[in-house]
Structure formats: C-alpha cells, structure tokens
Amino acid sequence: MPTLDLDPEPSSASLARTFIREQLRSCPSTIVDVVALLVTELATNAVLHARTAFRVVLDQSDHRITVRVEDGSARVPSPRHYPTDAMTGRGLALVEELADNWGVRRSPTGKEVWFEISYGETPS
Question: What's this model's pTM, rounded to 2 decimal places?
C-alpha cells in the first residue's frame, strides 16, 4: 500500500493531495478529484488539530479506494455545524457528504480517520 509521511505543516495538505493524484492516475478524473479533495481536508485537520506528524495510506482495489490519515492525537474528530460564512469547520461535513463510508479508529499511537469511495462496476 502506498504511504506518505508528512510533518504538521500547512504545505502537507498540498503534498497529500499531489500524492493521491499521482497514485490514482489511472482512475476516472471525477473520482480522483473527490479523493484529492477529501484527503486534503483530512490532512488539513491533522495539521490544525492533531499537530503531530501524520501518514496518508492509500488502499486501492478494482472498484474501491480507501484512504487513511493516521496521526498522533487521541482526540476523535466529529462533524460540527458552523455558520455558512465560517472560514473553517467543513472538512468532515465534506467527507460525510462525498464518501461512501468513513470513520475513525483509535490506535495505540493516536487515531486514524478513513474514508472509502466506490466507483465503476461492482463485482456481482
């Protein structure tokens, strides 16, 4: 599984997005756009809230993409409801809206936030 280790710096969100785009070159562009947007949101959350080094892990099968963002914070995120003109607070709402499935798992060293996107024909 391709992985990318990143520091808790603002530029890391862009690096995570570029990593995903490079890894998913053979996927439909509309799928790549959604996955890149969602990984950017999770990487930004890791930078802003976990404030630890983090890892992006990509698992791709024929018709499903799973992305995990693992960080060193035990704090579990949850979607929040901010005013429409707020400059923050939309990341998990986007994940909730656009991903087929998502969740959070605690780990011995922190947590992982993950999402899945299915596309194309699914096997019978």
Answer: 0.88
